């Protein structure tokens, strides 16, 4: 474990230097890893594990869309692809990558096969932390841990294929075998994490729900809409409003932040831009911090979990989400995005 100084605060992180893939392969050599669910994280983790030489099978509802996706990815029915229950029975470490609502529905089947010595793995602290709402209470005789990639399963796979890695958090909730941490870290490395930082189940779920509702997805989409609307109301064309709001951010400025930080991005813009951005940054922080506090409180009170569980447990929740996503897709802002993307020069 390496101790890293994050802006003055020391934290434990596990890198591929301390925990190389060869060590992960050794730790997992006698395990059968059952990936339950083949939605977004399922494929990313299962394919990376397979390519890393780990013994992995997939469990999924037969003839569902995800089942067919698994077949397309080369999983073989009866050899490496099984109905959920059979995968639970065959697996020694069950990677519960069903949707968070699906995990509630499938819990009777999953828990039935959690015999002594097995381990239960999540990529989110949701089910266990909100156990009063989910009913997910693992038996004491199994290891329970999480590895939560900090990004989409799609990026986990594409970065792996590029020889890079998404970072993940990890946490141990129950250590029945005495090997829970080693199993968690081995899986974290084998699914393709760039490095792993330590957390707890509750902290993972609180920060994750806040992040995706906030800056990562909810707030950014809201900010985009607000600025785009103001520009449009003041007579600017869709292409000007979109370029000044989204395209420049994703194509020019955020890659600079990713490369070398915010001050470096600022330093590579005009002094005019820097003056204005430094003046307005504080105003935006003041305006939004109360909203972020409200969001965090809603997460911590379990309200966000309750909303997710009740909305996503309805039989037609996928169709309803699709309608909302179609509204987003068909809005002027994002239709402008379609055209702008097509205008990007091709390699
Ligand atoms: N999507 C991501 O990139 C991402 C990133 C980090 C963590 N996570 C976490 O990983 C887990 C999986 O997320 P996801 O986005 O891949 O899930 P998802 O919404 O894509 O669903 C995964 C699978 O669950 C199956 N499923 C749903 N309900 C079921 C049921 N009742 N019985 C059997 N199967 C059922 C679906 O067929 C699907 O294949 C969640 O805990 C999520 O919070 C996801
Ligand atoms: C990819 C995210 C947003 O980080 C994840 O938390 C999710 O729920 O999909
Ligand atoms: Mg999340
Ligand atoms: Mg997340």
Automatic annotation (TrEMBL):
One of its GO terms (molecular function) is metal ion binding. Its EC number is 1.1.1.86. Keywords: Amino-acid biosynthesis, Branched-chain amino acid biosynthesis, Isomerase, Magnesium, Metal-binding, Oxidoreductase. PROSITE patterns: KARI_C (PS51851), KARI_N (PS51850). Pathway: Amino-acid biosynthesis; L-isoleucine biosynthesis; L-isoleucine from 2-oxobutanoate: step 2/4; Amino-acid biosynthesis; L-valine biosynthesis; L-valine from pyruvate: step 2/4. Mg(2+) 2 binds at residues 208, 244, 248. This is Ketol-acid reductoisomerase. It comes from Pontibacter fetidus. The gene is ilvC.
């Amino acid at each position: 474990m390496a101790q890293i100084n994050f802006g003055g605060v020391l934290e434990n992180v596990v890198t591929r230097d301390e925990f190389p893939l060869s060590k992960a392969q050794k730790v997992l050599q006698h395990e059968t890893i059952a990936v339950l669910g083949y939605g977004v994280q399922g494929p990313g983790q299962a394919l990376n594990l397979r390519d890393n030489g780990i013994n992995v099978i997939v469990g999924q509802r037969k003839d569902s869309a995800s089942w067919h996706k698994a077949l397309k990815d080369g999983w073989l029915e009866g050899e490496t692809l099984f109905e959920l229950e059979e995968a639970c029975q065959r697996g020694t470490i069950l990677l519960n990558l069903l949707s968070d609502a699906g995990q509630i529905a499938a819990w009777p089947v999953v828990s039935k096969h959690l015999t002594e010595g097995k381990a239960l793995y999540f990529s989110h602290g949701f089910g266990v932390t909100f156990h009063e709402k989910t009913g997910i209470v693992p038996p004491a005789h199994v290891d329970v841990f999480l590895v939560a990639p900090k990004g989409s399963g799609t990026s986990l796979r594409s970065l792996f294929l590029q020889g890079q890695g998404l970072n993940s958090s990890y946490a141990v909730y129950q250590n029945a075998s005495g090997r829970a941490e080693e199993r968690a870290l081995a899986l974290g490395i084998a699914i393709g994490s760039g490095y792993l930082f330590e957390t707890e189940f509750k902290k993972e779920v609180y920060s994750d729900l806040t992040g995706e509702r906030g800056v990562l997805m909810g707030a950014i989409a809201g900010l985009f809409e607000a600025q785009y609307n103001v520009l449009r109301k003041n007579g600017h064309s869709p292409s000007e409003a979109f370029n000044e709001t989204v395209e420049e951010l994703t194509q020019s400025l955020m890659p600079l932040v990713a490369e070398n930080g915010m001050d470096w991005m600022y330093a590579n813009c005009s002094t005019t831009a820097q003056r204005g951005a430094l003046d307005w940054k504080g105003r935006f922080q003041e305006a939004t911090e109360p909203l972020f506090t409200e969001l965090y409180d809603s997460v911590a009170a379990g309200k966000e979990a309750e909303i997710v569980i009740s909305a996503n447990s309805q039989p037609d929740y996928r169709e309803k989400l699709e309608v909302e996503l179609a509204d987003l897709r068909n809005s002027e802002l994002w239709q402008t995005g379609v055209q702008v993307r097509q205008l990007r020069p091709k390699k």
